[in-house]
Amino acid sequence: MSLAEFESFQPARHPSAAMFAKEFAWFKSEDNSVIGSLLRDNSDHDWNFVILGKDKRGVFRWIDGQSSFSSKQRAISTLKDEMQSLAATGQASESLFDKVTADGAVESAKLVFTDVNDALKKYFAQHPEKLHQLNPRKFEELVASILKDFGFEVELTQQTRDGGRDILAYMRNAVVQFLTFVECKRYAPENKVGVGIVRQVTGVHYLYKADKSLIVTTSSFTKDAIEEAKKIEHELSLKDYQDIRAWLSRYK
């Protein structure tokens, strides 16, 4: 279908979605219950898609998606198959995250989403292991959304800046303003955050005079990193996979 027809469904989009990918084609099921958009990533130029279905308010929101297709036609074919399945069953497939290769091995696929909402956070609360498959920038958006729910005003920094502060998180009231730098590391479980990252964040913390800094990772920290952080424990906190799981538990 045309872009104009796709827009007539009034799909919900994240305000910053165009920064990450460009839409190329649009699709709908025969009964108009689900719609889909084919996208191309602005950075690595692979093909992705998102599928949207109606929520309780009748708004079309993200329900499924896949990425890292090298072929446009393969992405379109998979998109149509997923849309047909969703229209028939009304349920999103778990293959959103895992796909099976020809030799039977399970291959991880990056998660694509256009909006960080409570439904998505509830999914990660139930399936926290899926955090390891997120695109790093999307992980930053997820952390920012959680911090916002904790009462912070959040701002994501540009992807091209030096490390040390992926998110600026402000806590403001009539008396004080409190600024926290947040550095996010979406790492595999076995890839621990080392002392070098801690020192880098510490340097940025003092250079730009933040009140507090956090390092948030989907893995854990090396012994040396933990010992280094203890030197400024009142100004720097380390948050690992278990801490994120605790944050997400509020959405169950």
Helix and strand layout, with pairings?
Elements: H1 3-8, E1 21-28, E2 34-41, E3 47-54, E4 60-69, H2 72-89, E5 98-100, E6 106-108, H3 118-126, H4 136-149, E7 153-156, E8 167-172, E9 177-185, H5 195-207, E10 212-217, H6 223-230, E11 236-239, H7 241-248
Parallel strand pairs: 9-10, 10-11
Antiparallel strand pairs: 1-2, 2-3, 3-4, 5-6, 7-8, 8-9
Question: Quick recap of the structure?
Answer:
The chain has 7 helices and 11 strands.
* Strand order across the largest sheet: 7-8-9-10-11
Give a quick account of the main beta sheet: strands, pairing sense, barrel closure.
5 strands, mixed
Give the fraction of residues assigned to helices. Answer: 25-40%
Span of the ends, CA to CA: 37 Å
**Fraction of residues in β-strands:** 25-35%
Q: So, CATH architecture of the largest domain?
A: 3-Layer(aba) Sandwich
What are the secondary-structure elements, in order, as H or E?
HEEEEHEEHHEEEHEHEH
Q: Kindly report the average pLDDT value.
A: 82
Structural class: alpha+beta
Number of strands: 11
What is the overall shape?
elongated
User: Could you please say which CATH topology of the largest domain applies here?
Assistant: Trna Endonuclease, Chain: A, domain 1
Number of individual domains: 2
Q: Rg to the nearest angstrom? A: 20 Å
Spans of at least 5 consecutive residues with low confidence: 92-114
**Main CATH class of the largest domain:** Alpha Beta
Helix segment tally: 7
